[in-house]
Predict the structure.
Amino acid sequence: MSIKEQLMADMKAAMKAKEEGKLALNTIRMARAHIRQAEIDNGHADFNDDQVLAVLRKEVKQRKETLSEIESSGREDLVEQTKAEIDVLEKYLPAEMTPEAVEAAVKEIVDAMDPGQKNMGSVMKAVMAKLKGQADGKLINQIVRKLLA
């Protein structure tokens, strides 16, 4: 079952759950709308699972950025809602690598590179190509900076 089909099935289940599924229903509807908009922007092409995952990752990233802003405002109701939305969306994403696994992968890539190429730009390019979608870009950036220092 593709991710789009899974979203549709979960949306139907949330509708049947009535009040308990309201947050999940709204979050899934929003995600499907963003996927559809991305398909339209891309020339009405049906997205494969990788493209759908990219849209869902973008949505989770936006919510995490919003979460840090909301937490400083003191609005606990919005903090809880945003965390719940992130939980709903992360259910469709593959598990991310642990920081230790990312560090090991980065070390492996850096060790395999020529000494002349061990600068921030070329290392980040090689690491992001290998770990695309498996780890957060900020985490990768921090680890690369630490290893190159």
